[in-house]
Design goal:
Helix content is 50%, strand content 13%. By secondary structure, it is of the alpha+beta class.
């Protein structure tokens, strides 16, 4: 079978396809979700080039698919092994690769978050290889690379879906779209040119230039509008609750991918650390040790308390997400007072100096918002004509690495007595915004809050009871199972899973307090971090990310409480005790609950329910993979060689011979013998048994010798072989010289007889030599 007429190399089209598909690999490497993603970029480029070269060959589609499987599996396997950052040789790395992949697959099967990025990397590398290979093959063989290009477009959309808004790159999408149009133009012109030449139609040589120029201008125009229109829509569409609800719905859909993408990380250089308008409670806490910022201050926090670096607060909850029911924006001038001074007797302003260790998109503050000495945008809810409920303050531009800013915060440490005597006559803006509970929260959550606080007589005592219950009855875990569909996060956390991290702890306390009529809100930012006496500096890392509840007390303002078990509890000074004060109001941290509940300490299941030791994984993964690869390789090579030989196509030794000769080398004899063997007829291969037997007898093979002369020499040495040798010679001469169809069955029978006689002859010779040697020794 001859190759199709258009199966020829087209450098221009290949370059355009490299740019189109390469943009996907480039986008992946820029995300830095995992280490060594640049290997995916390399594989997609190599796939395009190899696929294009195979497209010019005479291989069928099935043979090309088999070749892609063997070559791609080998590439991915060895590149994946080399990507392991362990001090071992290549063989040990390959073994460890199988172990890690087996563990990752087992974690997926058992609905556990994948603990290593290697499974994701291997999957991406495989996808990129086949995307590039079949793109190049389809382009050259059929000039129809649209299916791989379509999958590439889907990949870009998926990457955009999982990237933060700060990291999405419109440039990559523009490159992708731009070169697709150029590729379409190239293919269209090439086909038109072939048709014109066949029909002897004259065409203007400048037509190609004019067509490319038009496409380039049109592409740039479309890309410009594609960038401008969304920006205009975002500029004139204010943030609404409906928009946040839709975002929450999309987050629930994408959350289904969390197990597979659990180990991925964002690039330290590109990530902007901030908090969005919508806070979705995920199932994995940040674990990076990246230093985000340092804070310097001359005043330590009050005894028994810690600093919290506030970023943003939220007032509304929908069962899994936190957001703000109403948002206003206003330009903030450097040095302006953010909120009125809290009306607490022992509050004090503290100046903090923040220095960024990463790119930051929000102002962090110590204590309640006071003053920030840098301009930006104030995000708030209006409470009255002169007051604002500050949610967050955003800088005019991203705070770059190494940049600094100063901010004053009001550090409040009210006494227990002040909080006990605080009035429950809350302002209307507090009750309207910070007592709401969505209908999805089951009634048993509210009933639990009442039972926990049945012995408390004032708001502070109730807050303490709720805080201690959560601290003692919930188990802290950085990674938890996915929230079941349709379940309320707080209800599931309190009654079913009983494990979580700070977001679950804080959400539970806020909802429990609100059900008792106590105003509370969720605040996010970072915990205190690591303190250094030298320079009075706090170092805050990404894994210090934290969420906590703030409770409103009349005439005192917002007070921080800490329900998360691994964070020290807030301890307040007693103040002037009340005569009616009970033992439940003491600030001491105790392991005895002030209510009739037992302490339940759940133990996190550290295993997967299966034994994944190295020997077992090697037995059911490594051996199976190796056997499958070997069998597939042998079958594909066998079918390929047989088909190429039958159809008279170029064979591998012929291609090697041509390549060596073209480069001025000398083709080895074994390649020539291989080529001659593939070109032989079956009867010729059968007759080669005569040469083999002569070599066993140490007889030279003479090129000038006829087949009949070879038979005579063999019969002279082994007379018993005469009959089958003559029969084989008869079939050989009938086919080669007589042009008749030989009886292959008869020739195969002769071969078996020749081999049997030869074996018996050589066996007798061995014993004859031994007997002769014994006789010689006796004499």
């Amino acid at each position: 079978m001859k190759p199709q007429a258009h199966s020829r190399w087209d450098t221009g089209s290949v370059i355009r396809l490299l740019a189109v598909l390469g943009s996907v690999g480039l986008y992946l490497s820029l995300t830095q979700w995992a280490e060594h993603l640049e290997l995916a970029f390399i594989l997609i480029l190599a796939g395009v080039l190899i696929g294009a070269f195979v497209g010019t060959s005479r291989f069928t589609s099935w043979e090309s698919t088999g070749f892609a499987f063997v070559l791609g599996t080998s590439f991915v396997y060895f590149l994946g092994a080399s990507a392991l950052s362990i001090p071992a040789n290549l063989l040990n790395r390959q073994f460890n690769l199988v172990l890690i992949l087996g563990q990752g697959i087992a974690e997926l099967i058992h609905h556990q978050p994948v603990s290593n990025t290697l499974l994701f990397l291997i999957a991406v590398m495989n996808t990129c290889w086949y995307l590039g290979y079949f793109g190049g093959f389809s382009l050259i063989r059929r000039t129809q690379p649209w299916i791989p290009i379509g999958f590439a477009g889907i990949a870009i959309v998926i990457i955009d879906l999982f990237l933060t808004s700060a990291k999405r790159s419109g440039t990559v999408s523009a490159i992708f779209f731009f070169f697709i149009l150029l590729l379409i133009t190239r293919i269209y012109f090439s086909r038109s040119k072939e048709r014109w030449q066949k029909e002897n139609i004259l065409f203007d040589p400048e037509a190609k230039f004019d067509l490319n120029r038009f496409v380039i201008i049109a592409s740039l125009t479309i890309i410009l509008f594609s960038w401008t229109i969304p920006i205009a829509i975002r500029a004139f569409t204010p943030g609404t609750i409906e928009q946040l609800k839709f975002h929450a719905y999309m987050e629930k859909i994408t959350q289904r991918w969390n197990n597979f993408f659990a180990p991925l990380n964002q690039s330290d250089d590109l990530t902007i650390y901030s908090f969005e308008d919508l806070l979705t409670i995920g199932n994995k806490a940040p674990s990076s040790e990246k230093i985000l910022f340092t804070v310097q201050t001359d005043i330590l926090p009050p005894s028994g308390t810690n600093y919290y670096w506030r970023a943003r607060s939220y007032d509304s909850y929908d069962g899994n997400n936190w957001f703000n029911s109403e948002i206003s924006h206003e330009v903030y001038s450097s040095g302006s007072q953010l909120t009125p001074i809290p009306n607490a007797g022992n509050s004090q302003p503290v100046q903090f100096s923040f220095r960024a260790g990463a790119r930051i998109g929000i102002f962090f503050q110590g204590g309640l918002p006071g003053t920030i000495y840098q301009s930006g945008t104030e995000v708030f809810n209006p409470t009255s004509a002169n007051e604002k409920d500050v949610i967050a303050v955003l800088p005019d531009k991203t705070i770059e690495v190494g940049s600094s800013y100063s901010a004053d915060g009001w550090v409040v440490s009210p006494t227990i007595s002040e909080m006990e005597n605080s009035s429950i006559d809350y302002p209307s803006w507090i009750t309207n915004r910070y007592l709401s509970i969505p209908s999805i929260v089951p009634e048993r959550v509210k009933q639990l809050a009442k039972e926990i606080t049945s012995q408390a007589t004032n708001p502070y005592a109730k807050v303490q009871d709720i805080t201690m219950y959560i601290r003692l009855n919930m188990h802290y875990s950085n990674s938890i199972p996915e929230l079941p569909e349709g379940r309320d996060l707080v209800d599931w956390f309190l009654f079913d899973s009983k494990e979580g991290f700070c977001s679950q702890y804080a959400s539970a306390e806020v909802i429990l307090l609100r059900s008792l009529g106590i105003p509370a809100r969720l605040v996010v930012g970072y915990a205190q971090g690591t303190f250094s006496q030298k320079g009075q500096t706090y170092t805050v890392r990404a894994n210090d990310s934290h969420a906590w509840p703030e409770v409103y007390f009349t005439n005192l303002g917002w007070v921080v409480f800490e329900p998360t078990a691994i964070i020290p509890q807030q301890v307040f000074p007693e103040g002037i005790p009340n005569s009616d004060q009970t033992a439940t109001t003491t600030p001491q941290v105790t392991e005895t609950l002030p209510f009739p509940y037992t302490v339940v300490r759940t133990t996190k299941n550290q295993g997967l329910g299966i034994n994944l030791n190295g020997t077992e994984i090697l037995s059911w993964v490594l051996k199976i993979v190796i056997i499958i690869l070997i069998l597939c390789s042998v079958i594909i090579i066998f079918l390929f060689l047989r088909r190429q030989t039958r159809r008279g196509r170029f064979t591998i030794p012929a291609l090697l011979d041509e390549w060596i000769s073209t480069n001025g080398g000398t083709t080895p004899q074994w390649i020539k013998n291989w080529e001659n063997s593939l070109q032989m007829q079956t009867i010729e291969k059968h007759f080669r048994i005569i040469s083999v037997e002569l070599k066993k007898l140490h007889q030279p093979i003479r090129i000038s010798e006829t087949p009949q002369e070879q038979i005579k020499r063999l019969i002279a040495l082994i007379p018993e072989i005469a009959s089958p040798a003559q029969n084989l010679l008869r079939e050989y001469e009938k086919s080669i010289y007589g042009g008749q169809k030989p009886s292959l069955k008869a020739s195969q029978k002769s071969i078996h007889e020749i081999r049997g006689i030869s074996f018996r002859y050589h066996f007798k010779q061995i014993f004859h030599k031994r007997n002769s040697a014994k006789i010689g020794k006796t004499r």
